[in-house]
Amino acid sequence: MANSSLHLTSSSLAGDTIPSKFTCDGAEISPELSWTSPPEGTQSFALIATDRDSLVHFVHWVAYNIPSDRRELPEGTPKQKQLPDGTQQGKNNFGNFGYGGPCPPMKATHHYGFVLYALDSKLSLPPDATAKEALRVMIGHLLVRAELVASYHR
Which NCBIfam families does this one have (predicted)? Predict the structure, then answer.
């Protein structure tokens, strides 16, 4: 992987805690995510968000072919297959396109990882691609990745 200062942040999160408006207990809108300069040669980005405490790393968000000049996914990113800038969103483990908010069992705290991948190409995937399919196609194209982890307690 290339050396890079790629760093993923979110103005939506309260430190390392996910506010309820981004969860099944609220409006379930996506948090804002932004990142710094990617390495030279970046042609696109991909994002995968998972529940680190579920047995299968439950997938909450899959986005790929995010344009290389983009530095943010805004709060409330529409839940559709393709965004106006060409960003594509695959299916999460809820069976929906776009973001699906955290919903851990009652009285449980789960940790959610948002991983941004800088890639040297766009990904050729079907419109209903899963995280597993995206990760498979990324092999050999990953330049660098950045990660943000936050928790939610019900």
Answer: YbhB/YbcL family Raf kinase inhibitor-like protein
SS (H, E, C) the chain: CCCCCCCEECCCCECCECCHHHCCCCCCCCCCEEECCCCCCCCEEEEEEEECCCCCCCEEEEEEEEECCCCEECCCCCCCCECCCCCEECECCCCCECCCCCCCCCCCEEEEEEEEEEECCCCCCCCCCCHHHHHHHHCCCEEEEEEEEEEEEC
121-139: per-residue pLDDT in tens?
Answer: 999 999 889 999 999 999 9
Domain count, the chain: 1
Q: How confident is the model at residue 152 (pLDDT cuts 50, 70, 90)?
A: very high
* Measured distance CA(90)–CA(128) in Å, rounded: 5
Has residue 2 been placed in a domain? Answer: no
* Domain encompassing residue 148: 8-153
At 90, which CATH number?
3.90.280.10
Which pTM was predicted? 0.95
Q: Closest by alpha carbon to 67, among 115, 27, 96, 35?
A: 35
